[in-house]
Specification:
The structure is a homodimer. By secondary structure, the first copy, chain A, is an alpha+beta fold. Helices cover about 35% and strands about 20% of the residues of chain A.
Chain lengths: ~450, ~450
């Protein structure tokens, strides 16, 4: 270990309590991007980050208008012209906290119990962003920082980053870098470091059906009109066949199949059926026939209802035929599917089946293409060595089932590959009540990012 | 016209403005039975009715504890032992007013515009109850009242009268009568009086599915577990075949078919396809193949979703796999179906199809058997003559698609037939926003009930 690296690691260990306090400050700002009543909190979170970057010695700090929620930018170029430049991506927005009654502690107050910190955004991804701040701070204070650093911190990841692609394109020079670091992916377990090489895409729709002009008395009119809730249920019910395959016309036409070698590697991953049962609480798994659970969760496309609403949902019995029904339906996509094509397939499916009395609409709320990245770059190898050193275990390369829109934008707009890692765990309940962060893994993550930075200078 | 009848009609006409003011007072009490936060309003409405009966000279007035919402009772026996006794049924509870944003005026303030009075409960059935009060008051003030009158006014009709059957059975002597008058049925149009001879029954269920132990990230776990919302949609989608018939096992086994003569009479009713299109606002009707719309709406059983909820229904896109899904599903039944048997059929259907990872439950929230009544009794003929006189048109005998639980109880528990009539119209938006009462029809209804009372004395 070089002196600089050792000093940086020492600094990080000495300052752990402060890093944790700072995470608590950021968590206390309920920066929910999906809910416009929280727009002032989004602004507060952006200001908090800008101030923090300033205190770390960053320059050109800006809270940039994107048309949506702002991007926070800052750069520290003290490594000099000959050193590589890394752009670190993060998001400071979080998912809504509801259903609130299922939380055991207030979602926007960092609550530590044993090794766990409970809060919305603890792991996804305020904890990851501040881990990277800690590593950068530790490396900077040694005076031997081997890499220039830019930060691009967005506030719309949880709503699908609707403005980010355009925004990155419009600010290419400011964001220019040699590669991107993206700590929004996770680990398989506290002892198993990993690097993600493929991400799924997303096509997220809201489908609305309107039948009668107003809610009807089910006694008076039951049997005469098509009920939009029954019709919507019927449409959704038909979107899978009895083998768990999606029936939208042409849905699988462009799906890039998993190759034999890849499936062999995936079979070695620790994520067997037991893993998925344990983390979801179900006794019997479900999915497309012919694929293992881990293949289905990361290498195959899906279609799921995310939300559904019609008619009377209050207490007791209201004998009403609802005039309207709504479902939020999303597909996770794999290379080489395109959200726009899936949108057309969904429209074609509905148009062919729906009862002619219905007015209907499909609105795409969010979309991202899937991505697959190279595994042999210098930066990915630097991260792999860092993880192996800190976690003392061989690094697994894996696919991730989620969507990280910015990975595609970095590639398309800036021409840079992303190093995807992160220190969230499957049991962290991302997007769910009682989201949590495993603190020992988080602390090792800071160390690993310090190793990564100094590996880049080798 | 006898002097007494003429005097009573004159009295009713002179007092119309007061009758309307009293209706406004009762409407202003939001007596929503389905929502327990309105229990104090239920009590206020009961007290208002008890006071009103007292002012009409009724005796033995009681607000009776039923175990649920109270029954208001009162009797006026001044016609004497040799005169017939009629028990008038009504309900003073109303449906919830939501969705509130679709109302053009406050739901609990009687708002008159031209010939229409807008308010929740205006037509269903505070308006009908007060029309009967007006007729009874008018007959009583002549001093020649030919019939004894009892009132049984319940507060749970809109939640399926869960305690009424037991309660009537427990108070047989108090409620003893020769026949019942029930003005909770409607008219076909302002110029077409009618008497209802058959009612549909109801079996109303809440179905709950639980899959994962908590809401899941759709990227991380999409493709590995059965989504309860998709599963519920699939179950509901399968509950009708492509001929619009219900697929619950054995559902049609006990259905009493419409006979040829009945279908011939129903074909003469003014309720053609145009009627149903106009009153529902749909361009194309839907339902069981082989039956006309009016047959389907009154003489055939149905299955409809009344409410449906799962996952995230707020603004924007939340990429969650919901842990739970709920649907309120109800069947309108015809003779000789039984709600308990339909409950068993629904359970059997779900058990046979549902994915084994689901915990599920079916709770019957409300149930009533269907009824068919004789058309040739003295009382029904008295009503028929009264309606013909006032509306100057032949009376149609018809089936009603809705459920009036008390009709079955009157027959089973008290051994009395009901005369079913009423002055609500199809376009009155019962159970919907902007419920309304057509005032000219309401005023004729008061006159018709006065004629009915004096016809009984002939």
């Amino acid at each position: 270990m070089t002196n600089s690296l050792a000093n940086a690691i020492h600094f990080a260990h000495e300052n752990r309590a402060r890093f944790l306090d700072e995470l608590g400050e950021l968590i206390a700002i309920p920066s929910i991007s999906a809910d416009s009543t929280h727009t002032p909190d989004i602004k507060r979170a952006a200001e908090w980050l800008a101030n923090k970057l300033k205190s770390l010695g960053f320059e050109k700090i800006q809270i940039m208008d994107t048309g949506g929620h702002p991007v926070v930018f800052g750069e520290n170029m003290q490594a000099g012209k000959d050193a590589p430049t890394m752009i670190v991506y993060g998001h400071y927005d979080v998912q809504p906290a509801d259903p609130l009654d299922l939380w055991d502690s207030p979602p926007f107050a960092a609550t530590i119990k044993d090794d766990l910190l409970f809060a919305r955004g603890a792991t996804d991804m305020k904890g990851q962003v501040l881990a990277s701040f800690a590593a950068v701070e530790a490396a900077l204070q040694t005076g031997a920082m081997p890499v220039n650093v830019k930060y691009l911190l967005e506030g719309e990841e949880e709503t699908g980053s609707p403005t980010l692609g355009t925004f990155i394109e419009a600010n290419k020079e400011l964001f220019a870098a040699d590669f991107a670091l993206n700590p929004d992916a996770g680990m398989l377990s506290p002892s198993q470091p990993s690097i993600t090489y493929a991400l799924r895409g997303l096509a997220y729709f809201e489908v609305n059906l309107t039948g009668p002009s107003h809610d009807l008395h089910s006694g008076q009119f039951g049997g005469t009109v098509r009920n939009p809730a029954n019709e919507l249920a019927s449409l959704i019910g038909g979107m899978h066949d009895d083998k768990g395959r999606i029936t939208l016309p042409g849905f699988y036409d462009k799906v890039r199949e998993l190759d034999a070698q890849e499936r062999e590697e995936m079979a070695k991953l620790p994520e067997g059926d037991g893993f998925y049962k344990a983390h979801t609480g179900v006794s019997v798994l479900w999915g497309e026939e012919g694929y293992s659970a881990v293949e289905r969760a990361s290498g195959r496309p899906t279609l799921d209802v995310n939300g559904m609403l019609s008619g009377y949902i209050g207490e007791g019995a209201k004998t009403v035929l609802p005039a309207k029904a709504m479902a939020k339906i999303s597909c996770r996509l794999v290379a080489d599917q395109h959200p726009k094509e899936v949108e057309a397939q969904l429209n074609e499916y509905i148009a062919a089946r729906i009862h002619p009395s219905m007015d209907w609409s499909v609105k795409m709320l969010s979309s991202d293409v899937a991505s697959i990245s190279a595994r042999e770059s210098k930066e990915i190898q630097a991260m792999s060595a860092a993880l192996q050193e800190v976690f003392d275990a061989p690094v697994l390369f894996k696919r991730e089932g989620g969507t990280i829109p910015v990975v595609g934008y970095m590639q398309d707009k800036l021409g840079v590959e992303s190093v995807l890692t992160g220190f969230g765990l499957p049991e962290d309940r991302m997007h769910s009540p009682n989201e949590r962060l495993h603190l020992p893994t988080w602390e090792k993550g800071i160390d690993a990012m310090i190793h990564f930075i100094f590996n880049l200078g080798k």
